[in-house]
């Protein structure tokens, strides 16, 4: 009986010491700020339209290698995609493009800090050309090999003009 009371007392002290030192924080932390991913052509700097992003996030490199938390996103006409909230709340991020290559050496092993992206913004290295974009908080710029904005073929000049007018608005 005395051993049980002493054991419970020691466990209570350990729990109180843990809460006093901040161990009681919940993970993952919930961040309300969204993370936007911009995919640009490394050569021209134009947005990559309808690029499929393969995303992985985790607490460490092992989580990223095992792809414990993963998802996909598709860029719009402006080359932007929003990182899913479930992945944005994890500390580390890895990005790949389906059917395209990134303009950086060893892009498959590159790991990025979600906190740094949220705070300062971040751009991947551009080894394909000289396109440069200023970093903005909450925006992650990825440079990829390719032409950039896709050029469509239209059946007539009026269809092409209508599509260009709709894209400007």
What integer is the average pLDDT? 81
Question: How many DSSP E strands?
Answer: 8
Summarize the biggest pleated sheet.
Answer: 4 strands, mixed
Strand-pairing-aware structural class: alpha/beta
Head-to-tail CA distance between termini? 77 Å
Uncertain regions spanning at least 5 consecutive residues? 22-26, 150-154
Radius of gyration, CA atoms, in whole angstroms: 23 Å
CATH 2nd-level architecture of the domain at 37-144: Sandwich
Write up this protein.
The chain is of the alpha/beta class. It has a domain at 37-144: Sandwich (Immunoglobulin-like), CATH 2.60.40. It has helices at 2-20, 61-66, 85-88, 114-119, 157-168; strands spanning 36-41, 52-58, 69-74, 80-82, 92-97, 112-113, 122-123, 139-144. The strands form two sheets. It has a four-stranded mixed β-sheet with strand order 4-1-8-7. The protein has a four-stranded antiparallel β-sheet with strand order 3-2-5-6. The longest helix is centred in the N-terminal third of the chain and has 19 residues, at 2-20. The termini are far apart. 22% of the residues are buried. The model is unreliable at 22-26 and 150-154 (pLDDT under 50).
Which characteristics define this entry?
169 residues; alpha/beta; Immunoglobulin-like; four-stranded mixed β-sheet; four-stranded antiparallel β-sheet; 5 helices; elongated
């Amino acid at each position: 009986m005395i051993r049980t009371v002493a054991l419970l007392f020691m466990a209570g002290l350990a729990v109180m010491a843990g809460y006093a030192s901040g161990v009681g924080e919940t993970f993952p932390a919930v961040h309300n700020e969204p993370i936007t991913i911009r995919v640009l052509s490394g050569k021209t700097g134009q947005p990559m339209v309808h690029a499929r992003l393969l995303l992985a996030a985790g607490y460490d490199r092992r989580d990223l290698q095992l792809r414990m938390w993963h998802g996909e996103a598709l860029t719009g006409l402006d080359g932007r995609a929003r990182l899913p909230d479930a992945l944005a709340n994890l500390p580390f991020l890895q990005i790949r493009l389906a059917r395209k290559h990134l303009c950086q050496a060893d892009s498959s092993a590159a790991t990025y800090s979600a906190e740094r992206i949220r705070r300062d913004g971040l751009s991947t290295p551009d080894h394909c050309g000289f396109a440069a974009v200023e970093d903005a908080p909450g925006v992650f710029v990825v440079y990829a090999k390719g032409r950039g904005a896709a050029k469509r073929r239209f059946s007539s000049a009026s269809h092409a003009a209508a599509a260009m007018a709709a894209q400007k608005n």
